[in-house]
Every structure is written in C-alpha cells, then in structure tokens.
Amino acid sequence: MFKKICVVGLGYVGIPVAVKFAKGGLFVVGIDILRNKVDEINNGNYPLDSTEPGLPEMLREVVDKRLFRAVTEYGECKDADAILVSVETPFSKEDNVPNYKALESAATSIGKNMKKGTLISIESTIAPMTMGTLLQPILEKESGMKAGEDFYLIHCPERVMPGKLLYNLEKLDRVIGGLDDKSAELGKELYKRVCEGTLHTTDMLTAEVVKTTENTYRDVEIAFANELALLCENIGVDVYEVRDLVNKSPGRNMLVPGAGVGGHCITKDSLLLVHGSSGRFEPKMIKLARQINDYMPVHMIELVQDALKEKGMSVASSVITILGVSYLPNVGDYRNSPALPIIEGLRRDGATLKICDPHIEKLDKKGLLSIDDSIAESDAIVLITAHNEFMELAGEKNLKKLKDSVNTPIIIDGRNMFDGDLCKRLGFTYRGVGK
Ligand code: SAJ
After folding, report:
1. Which one in 51, 102, 113, 260 has a CA-CA gap of 20 to 30 Å to 428?
2. 218 alpha carbon – ligand 1 mean position (Å)
3. Radius of gyration of the chain from Cα atoms?
4. Which atom of ligand 1 is nearest the CA belonging to 260?
5. Is 211 among the catalytic positions?
6. Does 265 participate in catalysis according to the annotation?
7. pLDDT by residue (tens digit) across 318-369?
8. What is the pTM (predicted TM-score) of this model?
C-alpha cells in the first residue's frame, strides 16, 4: 500500500518519523528548506542539538541503505503514497495569531506536486478548525483534486519530547483525525508501521482539539499550583508542604509551582486552542492560567527587589547571579524559558548579571560562567532551573562556602531547591516561590 513517503519539515518531529518509516522498509524522502540540514542528513549526520538515544545511529543506517534521503524541493512528492507535514507552527504573541507561513507554503507546494490517491498527514500542532478551513482548501485548490475522493487527509498530532523522540514515537498512543473514515483507516495502516501504541481514530477537528487540550490542561494545572504558591507566600505557609499533604488525599495530583513555564509546547498550545474557538467561545480560565504562568518570572523579579530592599539595596547597583537558563532541568533547551524575561527584566532595571547554565554554551553569542565564577561577588543568587549540578549548593557546608564568596548573602529560590530555614539560620536573606 505504502512504498514511498515524503516527510516535509525535518526537525524534532520530522526526523524521527522519517527515520522510523525508513527503518520499517519504506523509501522516505525528507524535504526541508535548509540546505545545510539536508546536506548534513545526506551525509548520515543527525543535525539537531538534542541527544536522542539510538536516533543518530538509525539515521546513518537508513541513509547508508539509501532508504532515507533529504532534498529541498517538492518534486519528490509526485510519486509519494503519503506525505507527512511536520513544519513549525509558532504562535505570534504580538499579533495574537498562529504563524502558519511554513504550513501554508508546504501545503501549497504539496498541492502542486501530489499524485491522485495520496494520503496527506498533518503532524504539526495547529489551532482547531485549521485542517478544515485552511489546509484542505489549499490542497484542493493547488491540486485541482477533491479531498476524500482524489486524496486522503488526516491530522495526526505528534507527542515529541526532546530526549525521548524515538521512545515517544514508538510507544505512545496516537490520535488519527480523518477527513472521513477511509482517510482515518489509511492513516492507521500507515502509522501502525512505526507506532506500537494504540491508534485512536476520530475526525480532524476532534484531533485538533485533543492535541491542543493535552498541553492546555497541563498549563492550567501548573497555573493552579503557581496561584496557590502566591497565596501561600502571602499567608505564610510553605506551598510545597501544602502540596505534599494535599496529594496524600485520594485523587489529588497537584503539580509543582515554580519560576515559570517554558518550552515550545505548553506555552503555545493553549493560545492555539483559544484561537481555534475564538468567535464561538471565549475561555476564561485557560487564558487566565496562561497569564498566571507568564506572571511567575515577574514575581521572581519582585522577590529579588524585595530581598535587596531589605538590605537597603536596589537592583540597579547590584551584581546578580542567574543559575539556570533552560526551561527544564538537565537539558540545554531554553525556548520560551522563564529565565529569559527574568534576565531581561533585571538587565532593564540596571543589574549586572552573571549567568551560569552547565547545559548551555552561549546565550546571545556570549559565553556563560562556571558556577563559582557566577557566584563570586554576587549580591543575589537567583535559582531558576533545578539542574542537578546546582543541587549540591543547597547543603550546609556549601552554603557556608557560598556565604563567604558572595558580596551580599541573598538567595531567591525559584524551584524549591534550598531549605529556607537553613539559609536564614546561616545568615542569608531567603525568598522562595511559594515559601
Ligand atoms: N513545569 C512547572 N511545574 C510542573 C511541571 C512543569 O513549573 O509541575 C514547568 C517546567 O519547568 C517547564 C514547563 O513547565 O518550564 C514545561 O514542562 P513540561 O514538563 O510540561 O515539559 P514539556 O514542555 O517538554 O512538555 C512536554 C509535553 N509533551 C508534548 O507536548 C508531547 C507535555 O504534554 C508533557 O506532559 C511533558 O512533555 C511530559 O511530561 O513529558
């Protein structure tokens, strides 16, 4: 049924799926606009900066066996039995709309080249209604064909997680939203070649809502924890103790408050969901949750200002240590990281920043500092990402050493990494989110 497929967009989503289909014996042609990425792949090199167990080796294997190659043009779609689209769909906060430029361009080029009877699978995360109101019309217009009759159309959202790209692709269930039953069934035929998880079929719109809801749900859960942290700070209890005890109660699973929410999924999918329902329903809690999570970096700056004020100082004349830029512990990915608005805000208020993140080489083309260098002479240490390398700082011995090397003993704890009472006992001014 499927002999040759094309995968458009060779990123965190496209590369694993292309390699997996090739490994499964299909001829796969990857299409990407970046010439150097195409060349890298054709030389058998994994071109992304995440470490993915098994993926670079699998890529080299299928390239060497000529089962997978990459090109920059769309002519290869002419004899493809299926075409998968996994291009980026960022959300433009300024215009408060999704940026579908890449998606529209891909759909137009595919429409111009696709053959009769092919299956088109949109994997990119999109706002509900996008399949029916944007993509299907482009594909039909550019091809002169009719979806459901001359070609098949599905939305099959991905669940990638850098560091677990292959694992998630192979093991997790997937939703296949079909234009019609035939499209959904064909989608199942195709994806069962790479996915051991259960393939759940539904319609396209439901699949669009499911994917954006998965991450919106998490955004709202985290926002609840963050709002409770602010409440606990103001009535003088430790939110992490509250959380532990709340979660002892059956059916409770409160998530973890902190310095903010980053990454490329959780931060944008609720905006896509809200965009998809605009004009029909205006969610309140979902939008408010996003605002609460976006407020947490602002709150971190407030905690810095408050601690410095207690010492008769201000941000403007201070040297401030930033520990952690990544959006998650122990990774080097800082897309939409809460560290970025914290850094920007403190710089705007005139602070001199000394930034350390063991998982990141450079930030804005500037090298970062070692832990010791970033802490020396500091007026405030701001912990934003709970990398393992920072854990040992929280021990009593190291806190005493820390106190000797800083100018002003202030700790702002964004991830509950320090024991506040111990810090205070050792003479630190301590502020912690939710504590
Ligand atoms: N965060 C909190 N408190 C929490 C959990 C997360 O503040 O309790 C923050 C993290 O620090 C991070 C951000 O939220 O800055 C996102 O963290 P995440 O654990 O959700 O990691 P992501 O963004 O990589 O989320 C991905 C998503 N997976 C996909 O989109 C396929 C998400 O749906 C998954 O739940 C998550 O991975 C996961 O748990 O694997």
Report:
1. 260
2. 7
3. 24
4. 7
5. yes
6. yes
7. 999 999 999 999 988 899 999 999 999 999 999 999 999 999 999 999 999 9
8. 0.94
